[in-house]
Design goal:
alpha+beta; Beta-galactosidase, Chain A, domain 5; Glycosyltransferase; 2 domains; 8-stranded antiparallel β-sheet; 5-stranded antiparallel β-sheet; 15 helices; 30 strands; globular; 6-hairpin_glycosidase_sf
Length: 595
């Protein structure tokens, strides 16, 4: 169960124990994610309850999320009820854990409770995880009259520190490889009485920054931090007729916002990533497609200001390498390889922003104008000498193409040319370029088999083509993009082919029937979003109501029979595209449950 805010992510809260396995943050200087972890025996932070000398095991925890985001848990012993909440307050550099205990018995109960845990290791995460080799320190600090943890590699790398709202006994033991600690408070409750303890955790570059981050939340108080965060969540939430879809939408929306965007600890810059969770297999790096075609529409639906800041980052830090497979958060190349869909993503996001907000001021930003020029210059290098089609090296799955001219990718170029003609008076001639692209697609990318015309997936202009589809850039989306209508015969023939039982990756006869591909040969959640956007609301309503995914959070693919995650857990940008598709299809989804 993950939770997070703009700075801190808690990607792995154990539902069986309420243990916080790790905490993560983004770091520009290290080009990615830093992950502070416990180990397999002890999480980083773990609530505990002790009566006498006996530690009470947490059993049969009951979980829910306040505001469809904030994790809360409870459990009971014969005498006591314990309730906990793990809150990552918005716009704070840290998080808090509150524990509340009630005596349900007929006699007084003495007990000790609080937080304990183990800092076992720290990791640098960008696709692959590498353990950091700096020195771990834990010590008493005059700044919080408690303990502070920090990592040093010659100079400080980061620090984190707790501050409690009640007096606690702080103890710790440091060895060469790990730090074990305990924050404990003893209480005696009469029948019906209750008590609570809130521990605020701050992070920062070093001791003072970490402690004062915790102190700021302590001064504001739990009630303030909770109410402000719930208000923030409520302002962005959406309600569906079906309670399950409401929960699924909002949890995925907040997961998208807080795990596909983030503010770096060292430079305080907003950056975009595939996922701030190390559970996602290519975490903490930037893809134009993932951030701008998938997460951006959902963010724009919910928060125009954040969407604006996303575009400034894209046309600032990232514009130098537009269209290159993947990059670090500082804009430098991670994985080389040209992708046409990624090159066009910034233009399509820019048009979407202007059309949604009416704010044209962003078009005048020097970085935006320079970025558009860079995209047009790059396009010239990939245009066929005689035909208005553009090649790509990698497909939307990031796998190498079969033939260089992809129908879907060229539809994005067509859309992008029309967008620029619409956005900028001095690019109006690109409307003619768009028309030439459309004509070329209809001439070279439309094929015929068994008397039926359809869109090929890719062609080489020498007569070769393939029948195929990829959820990250599906031919199902052509009407959504505006290239054709849903009832267009060529489009209908195409969809029927790739959704047919005869197509290897259709999964059309499975319980969870959506398209997959060799990259992950199971139904993709992106394909559910594609289906929603092309009008298959009734089919998708049942899929979404029954699917488990990654504990209701979007993943890359699910098992076709159980609906459980098979690949790509904690896929934050995919969560965004799913939410956008659900919002666009809300009327159709609600109608299913009205009936």
């Amino acid at each position: 169960m993950p939770v997070g805010n703009q700075v801190v992510s808690l990607p792995q809260i154990q539902e069986t124990t309420a243990g916080i396995q790790d905490l993560t943050f983004l770091h520009m200087g290290y080009k990615g994610l830093i992950d502070i972890r416990g180990d397999e025996n002890e999480p980083l932070i773990h609530p505990f309850l002790q009566i006498g000398d006996t530690q009470i095991p947490f059993k049969s925890l009951v979980w829910n999320r306040l505001g469809n985001w904030i994790p809360c848990f409870s459990f009971q012993t014969e005498e006591l009820t314990l309730r906990g909440i793990i809150l990552t307050p918005v716009e704070e550099r840290g998080f808090l854990v509150k524990l509340e205990i009630t005596n349900r018995s007929s006699k007084p109960v003495n007990f000790t409770y609080g937080l304990c845990g183990r800092w076992a290791s720290s990791w640098h995460c960008v696709n692959e995880d590498k353990m950091l080799s700096g020195e771990k320190h834990c010590y008493q600090s005059k700044w919080n009259h408690g303990i502070v943890f920090d990592m040093r590699c010659g100079t400080p790398m980061f620090a984190f520190a707790p501050m409690a709202d009640q007096e606690c006994k702080s103890t710790f033991e440091t060895t060469k490889d790990m730090v074990d600690y305990r924050l404990a408070r003893s209480e005696s409750l009469a029948t019906g009485q209750n008590c609570s303890l809130t521990v605020y955790w701050g992070i920062g570059f070093e001791e003072v920054a970490a402690v004062t981050s915790a102190k700021e939340m302590l001064r504001q108080g739990y009630d303030y931090e909770l109410s402000r965060t719930l208000k923030w969540l409520d302002e962005r939430a959406l309600k569906f007729k079906d309670e399950k879809l409401t929960r699924l939408y909002n949890t995925n929306l907040f997961f998208c916002i807080f795990f596909s965007t983030g503010i770096t600890l060292d430079t305080e810059e907003l950056v975009l990533v595939t996922s701030r969770s190390p559970r996602y297999y290519v975490s903490a790096a930037y893809w134009d497609r993932d951030s701008l075609l998938w997460s951006f529409p959902a963010v724009l639906d919910a928060d125009h200001n954040l969407a604006y800041d996303m575009l400034l980052y894209v046309f600032g830090r990232q514009q130098r390498n537009f269209g290159i497979h993947s990059r670090y958060i500082d804009g430098t190349v991670l994985e080389p390889g040209f992708e046409l869909d990624e090159l066009m993503a910034p233009v399509l996001a820019l048009e979407r922003y202007v059309d949604s907000t009416g704010d044209r001021s962003i078009l005048k930003k020097p970085d935006v104008r320079d970025g558009v020029s860079r995209i047009l210059d790059c396009l010239k290098k990939h245009r066929h000498a005689a035909v208005a089609l553009y090649n790509t090296f990698l497909q939307p799955t990031d796998d190498e193409h079969v033939y260089p001219y992809l129908t879907y990718d060229n539809v994005l170029v067509w859309k992008g040319m029309r967008a620029l003609a619409h956005l900028y008076p001095d690019y109006r001639e690109l409307e003619q370029t768009a028309q030439k692209i459309k004509s070329a697609i209809e001439m070279y990318c439309v094929k015929e088999e068994n008397g039926k015309r359809f869109y090929a997936w890719s062609v080489d202009l020498n007569g070769n083509y393939d029948i195929y589809d990829e959820p990250p850039g599906s031919l199902q989306l052509l009407p959504y993009i505006g290239f054709c209508t849903v009832d267009d015969e060529v489009y209908q023939n195409t969809v029927n082919m790739i959704r047919s039982p005869r197509y290897q990756y259709s999964f059309s006869e499975s319980r969870f029937a959506e398209i997959g591909c060799p990259h992950a040969p199971h139904p993709w959640i992106l394909s559910v979003a594609n289906s929603l956007l092309c009008g298959r609301a009734a089919h998708c309503a049942k899929f979404l109501h029954d699917v488990k995914m990654d504990d209701l959070i979007a993943c890359e693919s699910v098992d076709e029979n159980t609906g459980e995650c098979t690949t790509g857990a904690a896929f934050a940008t995919c969560a965004g595209f799913l939410c956008h598709a659900m919002k666009e299809s809300k009327e159709g989804l609600d109608q299913v449950y009205e009936e």
